[in-house]
């Protein structure tokens, strides 16, 4: 992206391998993610009564949570806002009208070669099925990754599609989570995109950067630094408590490598649906060099209804946040409507208490 640096930054892969301080640490951490509820209860020092209420719940979307994310949760507290995002609960199995399996229409817009081309000028490349964490509110919890990801074989077709369409100047790597890909796979993808002249931006949407900061290793930093394109990394943090010192350090390194960092959060009931929590999130993000971008209303996917904050309340909440923060720290409240070419950005609502204080 900086022309003067291009010569020196095209370091061969073998040179970068020796720069890695973390080796395959992140893949190890990924494999060691907790998938067993008993282990999670042990690590959180839950009481027998708390355990009994959690063990034995089957939801069809397995538990998965990295240990470093568990380390950021409060011990003995089943209401912890981080725990709530990953803990399977019985309410997920209750059918709720309006909550369906394909809430955002992704199945309809899939082109079948790993490209989901939903936005003008931007191509969304679904790069992998794997996630470091399973978020209970995930709109992709029912997504058929097995047949949609641009894996080793399908990648070629996806790239050919992008190369053939000059209107695409931004490639969005999404998933799953693109940072579940190995550095070798990312390298191959990066070089292929470098060769497509009309692609001037690469955007990565990742929750892994937050839940498994080990992933931001020396090779990934080098990958960002090497790109001909501008790199935008959209992290997915929902709560300031997620952004501990390790995450802070790795984000700093990404910024130093030239990445622009943005955050996309989901508004989640009993996780971040109050003014102070949203303000703390924006403040913490900015302190780490990350601009708040979107605050999403929940996609109405089956199994996530217990997280929903209705639109009227969301507008009031964001209005109050806007009343207390500079404009650049207020994320855009947005919703995704099936079949639409772009997100719908929602306005603020003063709400009843603003009238009281006049
Ligand atoms: C909204 C969204 C996009 C694209 O929309 P922008 O308005 O360009 O940000 C891409 N990927 C994900 C995961 C999104 O949520
Ligand atoms: S990381 Fe993203 S795609 Fe993966 S489960 Fe969480 S919300 Fe869903």
TrEMBL record:
SUPFAM superfamilies: Radical SAM enzymes. CDD domains: Radical_SAM (cd01335). The keyword Isomerase applies. It catalyses: L-lysine = D-beta-lysine. PANTHER family: L-LYSINE 2,3-AMINOMUTASE, LYSINE 2,3-AMINOMUTASE-RELATED. Belongs to the radical SAM superfamily. KamA family. This is L-lysine 2,3-aminomutase. It comes from Salinisphaera shabanensis E1L3A. The gene is epmB.
């Amino acid at each position: 992206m900086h022309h003067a640096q291009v010569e020196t930054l095209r370091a061969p892969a073998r040179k970068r391998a020796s720069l890695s301080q973390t080796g395959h640490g992140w893949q190890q951490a990924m494999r060691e993610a907790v998938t067993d509820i008993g282990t999670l209860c042990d690590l959180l020092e839950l009481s027998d009564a708390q355990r009994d209420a959690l063990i034995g719940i089957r939801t069809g979307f397995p538990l998965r949570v990295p240990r470093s994310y568990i380390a950021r949760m409060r011990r003995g507290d089943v209401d912890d806002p981080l725990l709530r995002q990953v803990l399977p609960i019985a309410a997920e199995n209750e059918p709720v009208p309006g909550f369906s399996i394909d809430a955002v229409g992704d199945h309809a817009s899939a082109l079948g070669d790993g490209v989901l081309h939903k936005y003008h000028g931007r191509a969304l490349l679904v790069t992998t099925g794997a996630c470091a964490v399973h978020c209970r509110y995930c709109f992709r919890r029912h997504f058929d990754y097995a047949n949609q990801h641009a894996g080793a074989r399908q990648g070629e077709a996806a790239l050919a599609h992008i190369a053939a369409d000059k209107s695409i100047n931004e490639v969005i790597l999404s998933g799953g989570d693109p940072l579940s890909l190995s550095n070798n796979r990312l390298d191959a993808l990066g070089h292929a995109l470098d060769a497509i002249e009309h692609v001037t931006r690469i955007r990565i949407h990742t929750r892994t950067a937050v839940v498994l900061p080990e992933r931001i290793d020396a090779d990934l930093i080098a990958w960002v630094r090497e790109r001909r394109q501008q790199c935008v990394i959209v992290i997915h943090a929902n709560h300031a408590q997620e952004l501990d010192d390790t995450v802070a350090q790795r984000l700093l390194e990404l910024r130093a490598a030239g990445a622009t960092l943005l955050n996309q959060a989901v508004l989640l009931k009993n996780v971040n649906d109050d003014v102070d929590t949203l303000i703390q999130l924006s403040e913490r993000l900015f302190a780490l060099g990350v601009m708040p971008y979107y605050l999403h209303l929940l996609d109405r996917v089956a199994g996530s209804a217990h997280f929903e904050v209705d639109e009227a309340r969301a507008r009031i909440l964001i209005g109050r946040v806007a009343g207390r923060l500079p404009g650049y720290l207020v994320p855009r409240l947005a919703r995704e409507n099936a079949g639409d070419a772009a997100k719908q950005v929602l306005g603020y609502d003063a709400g009843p208490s603003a009238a009281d204080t006049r």
